[in-house]
Amino acid sequence: MGKQCRYFQWIEIDLNVLNHNIKALRSHLRLGTKFMAVVKRNAYGCGALTISRAALEAGAEYLGVYSLEEALELREAGMHAPLLIMGPVSPDRADTVVKQRLTPTVVEMELARALSHAGKKLDTVAEVHVKIDTGLHRFGVSIEESPHLIRCIGELFNIKVAGLYTHFSSADETDQTPTKVQLKRFLKLARLFPQIKLLHAANSAATLQFPETHLDMVRVGISIYGFYPSAAVRKTVLLKPVLSLKTRVETVN
Ligand SMILES: *Cc1c(COP(=O)(O)O)cnc(C)c1O
């Protein structure tokens, strides 16, 4: 009878490496450009709480999640940093959003009105960001409709559009044209609203490759975990993988 082997495998997350990646990415930015660590989907599987805490320690000013549930989990764990919810939020959760000082993304008036009500009830101002669809055709308000939407929100009380953003569809591809077109559309729209001071557009790929997209803040997901978004992306910053797979082998008699 031969000996049998038992394998133990686990994934290790190195927070020092995360710290290195964020600092390296930040040093690639102009002074004054803010850094949002995108920690949606349980921080790309690495654990939202641990990663968020470490990202803030490394100098991230903002956290980005997809859903209200993800945002509440971070608040409940005592994370008080500015927190952008990048996906849709149901208007009937407006009170919770305002109470927890979360920054929701607004793309239509129903949520804006609900937040305005909640802001009035709680005697505060709900700060929101408006997401402009400049070409991805996912979640966002179209370029054509956005000036009207932003003006209508501006007429409501207890709500303020603190930021405008867009998302690039192909910043990780070799052809830079779509990104340039999207940026141009976005900036043209933003120029209509000079009072809105926080413009952001860049994901990891754009942060690495297109400094002109950095604007007031970058939103970096995959690259804080140490990955380049695609093989076509220029490695302007040296990144190291935060995750490693470890194996221990034991023989069993
Ligand atoms: C996921 C996401 C990001 C981060 O994208 P990466 O390619 O992982 O850097 C940025 N912005 C929005 C709106 C996102 O949904």
Structure description:
With 253 residues, the chain is of the alpha/beta class. It has a single domain, classed as Alanine racemase (TIM Barrel). The protein contains nine helices and eleven strands. It has helices at 15-26, 40-44, 48-57, 68-76, 94-99, 109-121, 146-154, 177-190, 204-209; strands at 4-13, 34-38, 62-65, 83-85, 103-106, 126-133, 141-142, 159-165, 198-202, 217-220, 243-252. Strand 9 (198-202), helix 9 and strand 10 form a beta-alpha-beta unit. The protein is globular and about 75 Å long. Residues 38, 40, 86, 167, 203-204, 219-223, 229 line the site of pyridoxal-5'-phosphate (PLP).
Overall shape: globular
Helix content: 25-40%
**How many beta-strand segments?**
11
SSE-based structural type: alpha/beta
Query: Could you name the ranges where pLDDT drops below 50 across 5 or more consecutive residues?
Result: none
Distance between the termini: 9 Å
